[in-house]
Glutamate racemase
Amino acid sequence: MNDAPIGIFDSGVGGLTVARAILDQLPGERLLYIGDTANSPYGPKPLEQVRSMALNVMDELVDSGVKMLVIACNTATAAALDEARERYTKGMGIPVIEVISPAARTAAALTRSGRVGVIATAGTVNSGAYARALQGIPGLNLTQQACPRFVQLAEAGITTGPQVLDVAKEYLEPLQAAAVDTLVLGCTHYPLLAGPISYVMGRNVALVSSSEETAKDVYRELAARDLLHSDTQAVVGSGDDDGAAGTGVAGGVAGSAAFGADGAAQGVAGAAAAGGSGLAGGAGGTNAVKQVSRQGGAQGASSGTATSSAAASGKGASSATPSGEAASGHEFRATGDPVAFQVLAKRFLGPVVGQVRQAHATGGAGVKNLDREIRE
Ligand code: DGL
């Protein structure tokens, strides 16, 4: 057992799609998320530079005491995975989870024709990381396409509407021409645009997002190393007894408590339903949880569901400790403007995001030195 947070990062909001899946599958864990927005986008930059920036962010996460690192970014995975495993896993015993092999695994399982498409950043496409990861698919016919404007759109909070559709039609044309039956969203920003992407590709093309499989890897690794959190209720945090209970997190906790009390299957089902609908919730009220934990099965489940509507009304969204840790127990930081990141993160992950703090890892020194080295 280990109650330290899981460290997770991306160039910006894309990694929240992975964070969401981790919170769905592991509602008892705490996250420490860094959006490296000062250095976003990673995609068009040389891999050397991305490696330096990613390692700076991971150093900050490790210095903050995380028990695991999740590289919730394909470009950073392509650029820095080997060095990260060397530095943190071999050197310090901290496991590093990435997003490329989970997506490749899923694509291999889904494709019927072997015609697989990958859309990703230019950095990821040019790294050849997906070509290597997908090698095992029999008769593989791989079509790759860089889609840099998808990242810009997601970082601007624009994920639906005519502009996205126009860009999607342009980018996806070569994938349609190649008749792929499976399309890997090889950038963690892209699941935020899954609606328009699927609309353009059509129902018969399976979209693969690495989030769910990556979250399973997180569970697998935590369980194998005995690093799972000891208490699901810890995620509710200390602060806000009067706050409205959050959907996902509080719902999940409610169900666990109900299960603990009575072992009632209904309680667990209720928790799953509330938790599943859930990451838009999150700022948990401990009153609600304590109350539910005294109740048990069926009542626990209905209380879990009731918290959904409380969270859906947006109450309890802003509670956070002075350190920036939300009442949900999760912490979010950005290397760029924390307020701008908070607005977007709340849009994509919901009120589980509390106050956002300034990250120390601006990529500054390391990246400037690297720039100088490249020029010289
Ligand atoms: N979300 C990132 C990825 O998965 C990077 C996007 C970017 O910064 O260009 O590759």
Summary: The domain at 102-210 is CATH 3.40.50.1860 (Rossmann fold). The chain has a mean pLDDT of 78. Strands lie at 6-10, 31-35, 68-71, 96-97, 115-120, 141-146, 182-185, 206-209, 331-334, 356-358. The first helix runs from residue 16 to 25.
